[in-house]
Amino acid sequence: MSGPIPAHIEPRRLVDRSIVLKGTVSADKMPRLSALLDAPAGDVQVELSFARDEQGVNAMHGHYQVDVALICQRCLEQVVVPLDSECDVGFVESDEAAKNLPRNYEPVILDDEKLDLHALIEDELLLALPAVPMHPLETCQHPPGYQPDPAELEEEVEKPNPFSVLAKLKRDT
Ligand SMILES: [Zn+2]
């Protein structure tokens, strides 16, 4: 099945039939995400695979991709960041059942048959947003009016490994 991803689904039915849904959701259906962006995003590419696993968990594997425009925290210009997020959801009926889910599943408690799928996808994309969006150092622009100080540039060259520190910071986050 492909096409626009429906706003509401009945997960158990889709699990029963091992359905794969592939399609798009317009980002303008996601107000919480849109509010954080510097420019409207296009369609979110979505692929959802429903299945009951060997342990009997009603599961969904989701893959979401969209480019989003954010503000670079170094130069304050726009930076387009590709979001690419995958998650495994386990559908359960109670808090108790959620606690017993294998740890690789993110529990989603179904209080009635229908699930707000767009909100779930939006939640995943919000989690995938970088905490501190930035251009790669080579392409990042300096703030308007910035004049590089030649002494400072020389100093930077002499420092042993400014990038290894950044790389380590990135790894640690
Ligand atoms: Zn920048």
* Number of helical elements: 6
Number of strands: 8
User: In what order do the strands lie side by side in the largest sheet?
Assistant: 1-3-4-5-6-7
Helix content: 25-40%
Organism: Halopseudomonas xinjiangensis
Protein name: Large ribosomal RNA subunit accumulation protein YceD
Region (Disordered): 139-158
Function: Plays a role in synthesis, processing and/or stability of 23S rRNA.
Question: How is this structure best described in words?
Answer:
By secondary structure, the chain is an alpha/beta fold. It has one domain (2-142). The chain is 27% helix and 33% strand. It has 6 helices and 8 strands. It has helices spanning 11-16, 31-34, 95-99, 117-128, 150-158, 162-172, and strands spanning 2-4, 8-9, 20-26, 43-52, 58-71, 78-92, 106-109, 115-116. The strands form 2 sheets. Strands 1-3-4-5-6-7 form a 6-stranded mixed β-sheet. A two-stranded antiparallel sheet has the order 2-8. β4 (43-52) and β5 form a beta hairpin. The radius of gyration is 21 Å and the shape is elongated. The model has no long low-confidence stretch (mean pLDDT 87). The structure holds zinc ion (ZN).
List the helices and strands and how they pair.
Blueprint: E1 2-4, E2 8-9, H1 11-16, E3 20-26, H2 31-34, E4 43-52, E5 58-71, E6 78-92, H3 95-99, E7 106-109, E8 115-116, H4 117-128, H5 150-158, H6 162-172
Parallel strand pairs: 1-3, 6-7
Antiparallel strand pairs: 2-8, 3-4, 4-5, 5-6
Zinc ion (ZN) is lined by residues 72, 74-75, 77, 79, 134-135, 140-141.
